[in-house]
């Protein structure tokens, strides 16, 4: 039911590498991408921070309208398609993308029996390494073991990448067992977790954070959680890195 038949891709920066210092925004936008309050807020954030990578979850895309996303290239990996819309994770960037993989979860969630989506993209760094970026919306409403199996599926897909990596998104880690599975996944990939001086605005369920950015072979120079004043039930998290 609702399984997507298409995905969106617009690449217009194929001659550009990422900057040696670059910034990442990760945000579950709760299907609000067509609302004016969201557009005004994201426009303001982009003007202030000049993001190199935008990693959105729960994007809603009207199939009959062009998507407004400044001058970014983007790929939308959908998990749901209806007659008028597709929904999923969207990665946007102002640099080349040399490979992309759209993944649907093996398991389906309860109620509407829909999959969850993740997106893997590869971007060239100034030092000629390739940065692998994972934008993930982890499966919910399944047993913890099924959650782990989905992380294992992602691990199997990316484990052979040698070099810099970012894994970010909404991990739906609302209990301690899921958090432990996620930390085990990160350890196997030698990933470090982005931490924040003030975590009060990070989305939590039962005191467990569910939005994360992990990284490896990069230097973290800045991190922040942005209060959206309840535009979404999640708040954007920001990280800046250099080589």
Structure characterization notes:
The chain has one domain: Endonuclease/exonuclease/phosphatase (Deoxyribonuclease I, Chain A), CATH 3.60.10.10. 17% of the residues lie in helices and 38% in strands. The chain contains three helices and 15 strands. The protein has helices at 36-49, 144-158, 176-188; strands spanning 8-10, 21-28, 53-62, 73-81, 85-93, 99-104, 117-124, 130-137, 165-170, 192-193, 204-205, 208-209, 211-216, 219-225, 237-242. The strands form three sheets. The protein has a seven-stranded mixed β-sheet, with no helix packed on it. Strands 6-7-8-9-13-10 form a six-stranded mixed β-sheet, with no helix packed on it. The N and C termini lie far apart (44 Å).
């Amino acid at each position: 039911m609702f399984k997507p038949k298409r995905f969106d891709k617009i690449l217009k920066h194929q001659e550009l590498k990422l900057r040696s210092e670059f910034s990442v925004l990760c945000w579950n936008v709760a299907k609000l991408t067509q609302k004016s309050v969201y557009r005004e807020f994201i426009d303001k954030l982009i003007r202030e921070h000049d993001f190199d990578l935008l990693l959105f979850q729960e994007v809603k895309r009207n199939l009959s309208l062009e998507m407004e996303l400044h001058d970014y290239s983007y790929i939308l990996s959908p998990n749901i398609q209806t007659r008028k819309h597709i929904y999923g994770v969207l990665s946007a960037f102002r640099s080349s993308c040399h490979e992309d993989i759209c993944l649907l979860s093996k398991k389906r969630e309860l109620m509407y029996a829909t999959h969850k989506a993740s997106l893997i993209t590869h971007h060239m760094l100034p030092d000629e390494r390739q940065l692998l970026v994972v934008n993930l919306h982890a499966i919910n409403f399944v047993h913890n073991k099924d959650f782990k199996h989905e992380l294992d599926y992602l691990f199997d897909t990316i484990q052979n990448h040698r070099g810099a990596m970012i894994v970010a998104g909404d991990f739906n880690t609302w209990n301690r067992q899921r958090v432990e599975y996620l930390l085990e996944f990160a350890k196997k990939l030698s990933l470090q977790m982005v931490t924040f001086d003030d975590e009060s605005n990070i989305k939590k369920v039962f005191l467990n954070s569910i939005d994360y950015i992990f990284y490896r072979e990069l230097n973290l120079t800045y991190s922040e959680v942005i209060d959206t004043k309840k535009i979404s039930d999640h708040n954007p998290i920001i990280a800046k890195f250099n080589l």
